[in-house]
Amino acid sequence: MSVGEGAVRKRAQGLITETWQSQANLSLFLGLEILIAFILPSLGFGRENTQLYSDIGFSVLLLSGVAIAWGRLWLFVLTSLVAGFSLLVRWISWFDRSSRLLLWSDWWTLAAVAAIALVLLSQIFRPGRVTHLRIQGAIAVYLLFGVFWAHAYHIAAMLVPGSFAGAAELTNVSGWAYYSFVTLTTVGYGDITPVSQVARTLSVAEALCGQLYLAVLIARLVAMEIVFWQQKVQNGEY
Asked: What tens digit of pLDDT does each residue of 110-145 get?
């Protein structure tokens, strides 16, 4: 094999690796989120057993998120451990519905969602041009915020009963997700309101995070694109 052929093959391998680790998987993960959280439920999937559907969907998303970290050993090991404990506790809780185990399940879910968000962000903000696939990954992180805070609210309600008024709607995971995304987007219909101090603090924190994330994200991605084109100009590639 000639030197030229070796250079072409090396460049092709690098392109495939870059696409697999930081672009294609980000798009796939967002697609899975939308499919599991919005499309399938609207078609009636999980209607008869919301909790089972939620656990299966969460497991699929978690495993997909872990796979994205494959290219970075320390991140892959960390995410795998957190995800593994989260799935273990979540599925054990089917056999032991005690409040203590349910709390542990929610706490480990928070850790797992945070770990997956870290994996996605590490891929989104890697050096290089800002593509539409990276933007899709950023949207996926935004949706993970809603999942994270939904479980945080459930923990607050279990630790401090009566934390929410209108809690008749908060009987399952879809109810908590509804309130979380309404708060994240600062829509605030008012059908469910935080009453306790911890619930109000969490609600304010989620609303702030939702707005600040978008502002910081746009600024960061624009700066990355500017730096990318400046480097191309300096290198005489444009």
From this structure: 999 999 999 999 988 888 788 888 889 999 999 999
Crossing angle of helices 197-234 and 132-159, in 10° steps, is 160
R_g (Cα) of the chain, nearest Å: 21
SS3 for 48?
A: coil
C-alpha 39/C-alpha 148 separation (Å) is 20
Write down all domains in the chain, each with its CATH number in brackets: 3-234 (1.10.287.70)
Q: Distance (Å, rounded) from C-alpha 165 to C-alpha 128? A: 47
Instruction: Tell me the CA distances in angstroms from 133 to 26, 65, 153, 235, one per residue in order.
Output: 6, 15, 31, 25
CA–CA separation, 92 and 101 (whole Å): 8
DSSP 3-state percent helix, strand, coil across the chain (nearest 5) = 80, 0, 20
Convert the pLDDT of each residue in 170-180 to its tens digit: 777 888 999 99
Measured between alpha carbons, how far is residue 214 from residues 67, 75, 137, 208, 211 in Å? 26, 25, 13, 10, 5
Cα–Cα distance measured from residue 67 to residue 133, given in angstroms and rounded to the nearest whole number:
17
Distance of alpha carbon 40 from alpha carbon 125, whole angstroms: 31
